[in-house]
Amino acid sequence: MTTVSTTATTLAEIPLVDLKAQYAPLKDEMLAAIANVLDGMHLFLGPEQRDFEQEFAAFCGTSQCIGVSNGTDAIELALRALGIGAGDEVITQPNSFIATGEAISAVGAIPIFVDVNEATSTLDPTLLEAKITPRTKAIIPVHLYGRPADMPAILAIAEPRGIPVIEDASQAHGAEIDGQRVGSFGTLATFSFYFSKNLGAYGEAGAVTTNDPDLAARVRLYRDHGSQVRYHHEVVGRNARMDEIQAAILRIKLRHLPEWNVARRDRAAVLTAALAGTSLTLPVPGGEHVREVFYVYAVRHPERDRLKAFLGERGINTGIHFPIPIHLQQAYADLGYTPGSYPVTERLSNEILSLPMYAELTDEQIARIAAAVREFDAAGA
Ligand SMILES: *Cc1c(COP(=O)(O)O)cnc(C)c1O
Predict the structure, then answer these.
(1) Which of 205, 283, 331, 377 could form a disulfide with 193 if both were Cys (CB 3.0 to 4.6 A apart)?
(2) Domain ranges for the chain
(3) Of 129, 128, 127, 71, whose CA–CA distance to 100 is shortest?
């Protein structure tokens, strides 16, 4: 019990996300694309961003895409484009990255939370109606872990009431429901290209998608200081543009995203098979209508912290998405929530553990992860 096996310590670490493995085969193409941007010295609002916007809109199945500075700003700009501001209520789920709440707060609106379905970790549509008030101005479901939220059920509640839906698709580039990609269901959708996401930049970047040209024009306006003509500012906007180097990098990666997502699904299936019969609660399959993209492979265990430490000692890096729900963050203490407010989210936050997940994860690495979990089970028995 006190000895750490020497074989374990001499094996290479298994990272949570392996960006070097993804970069290696793309290196020459990446460096050439970056050099091309620098040779042209057109650094913002140039050809790379324009082409990326067209290519990413086509990927999502929307008519419009606006490249922006990051995924947090993408949500804020979508809210501003809808005219949402002080005193408005915006519904989202409490088990998201803080950014979803921050963007709502940034426009002066109040985040209202709806708990999630325990099997899917996404917004529970059966709890949605009870939280809608005359002040509800938008609903932001999050496609958490690469699993689409139940968009048909959410839209069936929102649309008759005229409430816009903004998909937070930051964790689900390419995920589908009945063959339709996320980013194309809501009034607007937002994406992050944070480095670890399924489509990640080598810096900060994000995007907004929509099929509404007028909303797209408003996002473009807010993205660039509220200005269409230089030094003429129609609204108080933001500096939230995507830069050309990131756009060039994203264009190269976007061509590989479909194959990476297929590989992630395959790696997830192999992990699930390898971990069968262990003490872990494994991700519940999304079902025949849903195609997940496994941004995160989250398992559950009642002794999560002990398991995390055990795996860490064996060079297996894990994460927690997310350990503290938004409503219990210190930043949101003024909202007055106490533990017990959102029981499903809170239970999940105590038990979830994200295992290594990336397209290049090898069978051998998966075997090591499964062996370590079985060793943990045997030690605890
Ligand atoms: C990553 C993420 C964001 C924020 O994206 P940034 O690009 O880091 O600003 C927003 N929402 C969710 C669900 C995310 O996972």
Answers:
(1) 205
(2) 6-17+257-380, 24-251
(3) 71
